[in-house]
Amino acid sequence: MQHRKHDATARTSAHGKDGTHRPQDGQDHTTAAKHAGRHGHARRRARAGDARRARHRALRRDVPATVGLLVDDRDFAAMRRYPTFVFDDHPDYLRHTEGLLKALSTQGGHTTVALFDPVEFAHYCQETGLDPDSSASRSRYTAEVASTGATIAYTGQPLDELVPQLVHRTARQTTWEYATSLLGDLGTCSDCGEDAGRSAFDRASRLLVELLDGAGPGTHHLVCSVPAEKGQQLLAVLHTMRAAEAPAVLDSAEAAEFATVLAVGIALESPGGVVLRTSTPDAPDRLHGWRLHGGRLVALTEAEVFSAYCTDADTGEPLAPEPGVEYRAGFAVGDSQP
């Protein structure tokens, strides 16, 4: 009798007086729903966080990065006077810099490298009132250099390949800026009233076209050397190719630099010169030369070209001719009479 009463009580407790099922051991629908709601909210919050991080990564790929590089021991030593510059070994600094470049590259953005010049950096901080012993100041200077100076895009190349490229690009930029400033300081011609710098640049551009026309088809390497003020030596190099019955293919930046340096020699009537080396398949290389005299390019004779290439500039001793090369006289360009 008692046993049957206990079974009835258990059934009533399990199903309720109205016969509906109730969970055993204190389980409750409302509590389970609360747990499910909390878990769902956490999952939605996690998905939203993942989406934000993905958008941040995508946005980061659109932001360029620039790294200022101390390329030699002397520049590195100059930066060690600042306590916030934490490196004390140049090779170790270069290894860490290369690691940083690789890390930036993996993020998918565009990364460039600029030459960090400690002397120019100190001058920049003095002009702008910045504290040179600050990472923020170094960062601002690097951004300034990148916006106005020479940079190299980092594409995964090793530093021992990137550094010479950066030094060469910076030297070209410095030469062009200095030559441009010299032309800009010339003012107007007292005889004709024209801008003297612009007039010299136009003449130099025409001479460059004539040099390339006279060189004919082939791969051409031109060098213009002009002594400038304060003992400066301006040097410009131009590489170009020309197919038969076609104009020469020029790098516009190199052509502008070459014409600018030549224009300085023309305007200042400096005793500079131009050499041209032409290579064609199955034929010896040809070397031609010109000297600047009175603002004109005067063709050198074959003997003068040979002497210029086969004489040691420091000792005056003769040098052996380069094999596979023909030393030829320059050809007439512009008003070539002195």
Detailed description of the structure:
With 338 residues, this protein is an alpha+beta fold. A hairpin with a 5-residue loop joins strand 4 and strand 5. The strands form two sheets. Strands 4, 5, 6, 7, 8 and 9 form a six-stranded mixed β-sheet that branches. Strands 1-2-3 form a three-stranded mixed β-sheet, with helices on both faces. The relative contact order is 0.07. It has ten helices and nine strands. The protein has helices spanning 2-15, 29-61, 73-79, 90-106, 118-128, 135-148, 159-184, 196-215, 252-268, 302-309, and strands at 65-69, 111-115, 151-153, 218-227, 233-242, 273-279, 285-293, 296-299, 325-327. The model is unreliable at 1-17 (pLDDT under 50). The chain is 49% helix and 17% strand. The chain starts with a helix and ends in an 11-residue tail after the last strand. Helix 8 crosses helix 9. Among the domains are: 65-157, no CATH class; 196-327, no CATH class. Residues 35-46 have a biased composition (Basic residues). Residues 15-28 have a biased composition (Basic and acidic residues). Residues 1-58 are annotated as: Disordered.
What is the number of helical segments per DSSP (H or I, 4+ residues)?
10
**From the alpha-carbon coordinates, what is the Rg to the nearest angstrom?**
36 Å
Give the low-confidence spans: 1-17
Task: Return the string of H and E elements.
Answer: HHEHHEHHEHHEEHEEEHE
- How much of the sequence lies in strands comes to 15-25%
Shape: elongated
Mean pLDDT across all amino acids: 84
Largest sheet: 6 strands, mixed
**Distance between the terminal alpha carbons, to the nearest Å?**
139 Å
Structural class: alpha+beta
How many strands in all?
Answer: 9
What's the helical proportion of residues? 40-55%
